[in-house]
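This entry is passed on directly below:
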Amino acid sequence: MHQPLSRRRFLSAATSATSVFAFGSRFRRCSVLAADQTAPKLPFTLGFSLYGMKTLPIDEALGTCAEIGYRDVEPALLPGYDTEPKRVSAARRKEIRSLADGLGLRIPCLMENIRPVVDDKAQAENFEKIALAAELAHAWKPADPAPAIIETVLGGKPEEWSKFRAPLLDGLGKWADAAKKHNLVIAIKAHVAGAMHTPDDTLGVVRELNSPHIKAAYDFSHFERQGLDLEESLRTLAPETVFVHVKDNRETAGKFDFVLPGEGDIDYVRYFRILKELKYAGSVTVEVSSAVHQKPGYDPKAAARKSFQSLHAAYVKAAAG
């Protein structure tokens, strides 16, 4: 885990990026969340998807995540978010990168929402989305050899998979060409309610495309809903996985709801030990479901803090042995 953020470093970073948010004394690092520099490390880092912080300006969201202890953030490029591409000028890109760097945060991945099975007009709009996402991804990419990544789900419905697969492959093939042009990796994510919803489906698509520019994003919460095993699904997709989302499920009266990490039954110590064994070295990033962050009274800062407490505790235990 990264070095705890001092108040002086925090305020200096905010000022250097001409932040619009008055950071002040609202942020107090809680000692229980501060990472122990002498503790064993895992090859991956913990992050928070800003998909769950729509109500916060990006400056405040970055400050919150750094103060809590996250190493990574995943900005959302979706309509209405502060990082929607049309809202981010060239100067603003530099400010955000400067602020993230000053806070010790990496931006390894961006969230988009693109559908490959579309008509020609919509596909042209997809290429424009990919181009704009690539500009931001490279502007904010960490200074390491890992690729710039955008991740997306693909739409459709589970019962449509047999007829969805062929046009999906065609659409993703075109995406692969666009991603190659922009030196980008697109990570596609299976969704319990989408046409591509299983690990085997996802692996089959990625392997058939056989492109370094189309890889997988892994999110066990969608497989848990289907009664699939953590280790089996993870081992299936790990060779093609470049990004990991985490959240939990909770069953109430026979109905499943997505919840924050730690509020369900996923064993994150086991999860992290398997990732370590598999030598996964990317980001493990909290995704707060829209079913959670659109509820009245949702507090993005409290959600980020609670999620980190659960994951950091598991991280420490998994790293220790």
